[in-house]
Specification:
two-stranded antiparallel sheet; about 220 residues; mainly alpha; about 10% strand; about 35% helix; two-stranded antiparallel ribbon
Length: about 220
Amino acid sequence: METKAFPPETELEYWKDRAAYLETENAQLRAENSALARRVKELESQVEALMARVLKLTQQVYGRRSELSPKEKVFVGASFQIQNNGRRGQQQGAKGHGRRKHLNLPAREEIHDVFEADRHCPRCGLPYDPFPGDEISEQIDWQVKVERVVHRRKRYHKTCQCPGVPAIITAAPPPKVIPKGLFTARFIARLIIEKYVLGRPLYRIGAAMRMEGIWRRVPW
């Protein structure tokens, strides 16, 4: 800040002029500060409006209308808050519906028995007798089974001396989609489903086959 030069008439007059000058400069600074405060409030309002606009556009682009939650994010000040507009879905503390039974799936039972050494009293050694009723629980298993189908075609030789008939007859070969092809009809159908129904690219199908040990390098 520049210091204004005052004529040295008297020391009292000098300090009066100096105080008046500082009061004028202080008034100017207060006016500038008020203008800056108003500008800051205007910018904060603009930022809040822009953030609300960004949130709305994000929900429109990435959100699905059918899955909108009653709890919506609302921008308040400089943070997001959760606003609950209604009760939908299972509420906290409500009783659940339990797991689905999946009775349409085939079942495979596995018996888990107590070890022979644990079926005796650890103190007296007397055995435990079977108790009616088992503890039953279920899991869902997903198996991807790839196997070789070995076709054994039986052969027979004639035991007669009749001329003009084959000496050895062999069972007919199994039907194939591709003559002399390696893949069964079920295998080719699965490839078509993976490629055109599930939309999996060929390199991913090949990676899945390598995981199952079919080939080190898929032949396509």
